[in-house]
């Protein structure tokens, strides 16, 4: 029973941060916390665990176009 109370207290502290911040962002997840797991933190934020680990893939075509545009702008200012 005391273990459950401790877990609920830790989750409550974690949720206070969500209330202050407003929208869930990855930086809110604290991987070093021993009292609330990453999976549970994501669940409390209403997000899946994969949301936390997801890294957006860069589109090589768009990156190439951006580089061309950057070069054009750089030439204008030289």
Automatic annotation (TrEMBL):
This is Uncharacterized protein.
């Amino acid at each position: 029973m005391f273990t459950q109370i401790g877990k609920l207290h830790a989750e409550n502290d974690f949720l206070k941060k969500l209330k202050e911040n407003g929208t869930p962002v990855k930086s809110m997840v604290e991987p070093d916390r021993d009292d609330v797991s990453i999976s549970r933190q994501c669940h409390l934020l209403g997000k899946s665990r994969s949301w936390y680990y997801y890294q957006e893939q860069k589109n090589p075509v768009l990156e190439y176009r951006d580089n061309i545009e950057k070069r054009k702008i750089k030439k204008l200012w030289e």
